[in-house]
Amino acid sequence: AKAAVFSGTASESVGNDDVEVAAGKSIYMVSDGTGWTVEHSVTAALGQFDYCLVDRGCPVNTHLFSGIDDVERLMEIVKQAAKEGAMVVYTLADPSMAASAKQACKLWGIPSTDMLGPITDSIASHLGVSPSGLPRGAPGRNFPLSDDYFKRIEAIEFTIKQDDGALPQNLRKADIVLAGVSRTGKTPLSIYLAQKGYKVANVPIVMGVELPRTLFEVDPEKVFGLTINPVVLQTIRRARAKTLGFSEEVRSNYSEMDYVREELEFARTVFSQNPVWPVIEVTGKAIEETAAVVLRLYHDRRNRCLMPRISKRY
Amino acid sequence: AKAAVFSGTASESVGNDDVEVAAGKSIYMVSDGTGWTVEHSVTAALGQFDYCLVDRGCPVNTHLFSGIDDVERLMEIVKQAAKEGAMVVYTLADPSMAASAKQACKLWGIPSTDMLGPITDSIASHLGVSPSGLPRGAPGRNFPLSDDYFKRIEAIEFTIKQDDGALPQNLRKADIVLAGVSRTGKTPLSIYLAQKGYKVANVPIVMGVELPRTLFEVDPEKVFGLTINPVVLQTIRRARAKTLGFSEEVRSNYSEMDYVREELEFARTVFSQNPVWPVIEVTGKAIEETAAVVLRLYHDRRNRCLMPRISKRY
Ligand SMILES: Nc1ncnc2c1ncn2[C@@H]1O[C@H](COP(=O)(O)O)[C@@H](O)[C@H]1O
Ligand SMILES: Nc1ncnc2c1ncn2[C@@H]1O[C@H](COP(=O)(O)O)[C@@H](O)[C@H]1O
Ligand SMILES: [Mg+2]
Ligand SMILES: [Mg+2]
Which of A174, A198, B69, B78 could form a disulfide with B104 if both were Cys (CB 3.0 to 4.6 A apart)? Predict the structure, then answer.
């Protein structure tokens, strides 16, 4: 729900952080780094318990402790977890810190899981080299200003500028172009992909508004159409219209069922006139799920190999 | 390097995907979902081998296979991994799929690691309930359009609109306001935080340009200053000036050492006049590392509890 950006069952404490820790079981997540890895893993695992989380009377509270690189603070946290009856999940690069966490949890009789040790050991023996044992923020380690780093930042800046059909003359510079009617998730999807290093432009399809000529001039293999179930779209648009405080008149046009259906039909026509564009159904998908589909197709089209994959080199 | 958005040692295959799989060891990552969880975990673990990756003659190739929810494709992938001498790391929610992966890897004599099973089992016994065993895309499962989901999308849309000092009249609506000179990473940091559900505005500090009045009118507890080592900043600005094709004259002003130092000095003065704003050193930090520092302080200030933490409810 959280690190994966959007799966979205968690109710985060933005704006009001004073989570009552009273009801529900607790999970303590501890990292010597940012904590985003352990949070991501715990969130994915919690997906297996969706059926009994907050809506079903079995709420879970997670607590993330980041930058824990000394044993004193680690022990404080374990002690507090014991008090609260919490379990502890950790990523600690220094083997002696990981051992301390394990031992202390055992001593206090609380369950614990090491999310970094097993995968690190397994990679170490595969590569035939030893892990450094250094946390990411350790003194002496240096964050490299690689080409890759600059490329990612450029991708984000490009994508922001291209949001919502802006600067259509730049479409040819994009790696990926998304087209769809309002509220199909073009903006958050663009941003999600940009974070992964892709330059994305998104183009809204609005009934009665001409699409930019450049959309049909760029390589059609990089254009993706988004579509959505009309009933779901109406729900989303109603929420949107309320947030923006649209007047009753504009609102009904924007989120009225006939209009929604007609506009989706219009989009479908555009898509069918451009048969190379894949059309992705976003209904019922979290942003990161749609992103996975887009990137699978994107890499597949470039590699044309038997088993679609995304390959990287470290 | 990758799922964590920026740690940035991986050279991704955007634009040219035809990674030569010849040199280096391979890691196959397999998920019935998006694959972002296993990718994130493997990337974090690879940080332990930074010292011997591509620059040091021990390159690693990762291959991500997402949406693998039938045993036939799973077996194909394991077979291919065996051919390539790759190890396999997987997140498979269906216990019989996970068992098949484990068994097949054993049969083919290749190392494998289950990234989902252990944490799921451990949470199951902590909560005293059973995991559903259903992958995130399984039929019958439905992605909830929760308040949280809409809030995240709103945060992204807000943050995009507020980039680079735009619409200063909206600063009071932001959860977090970032201030710093050009190329301190305000934009990617804002976007990273927005993905996590925070409405972020960023305000550039430029020598000789007056800052918006609203910056000093909003709650100073939500404003964060960014600072950076002048030599590193100059390197980043030079790269930037080249990308943007600045003329020689503008470039020297923007990235000349005297100017860089003076502008950082100017920012420091602004910060010292606003002593409530924490000043965060971004030198040597990946975007997600700076994000962790910002959010630690942000939640700490709201909770004022002994052990800084970020708490959520599922
Ligand atoms: N680039 C890196 N170098 C070394 N260790 C890392 C790196 N990235 C992540 N880690 C480690 O992986 C674990 C998870 O990182 P994080 O997601 O920042 O909590 C922590 O133990 C970090 O110290
Ligand atoms: N909301 C969810 N419900 C059920 N399973 C999930 C959920 N999110 C992630 N998972 C599972 O967690 C693992 C990692 O997910 P992913 O990051 O999408 O590859 C996969 O086995 C998914 O099926
Ligand atoms: Mg949009
Ligand atoms: Mg910027």
Answer: B78
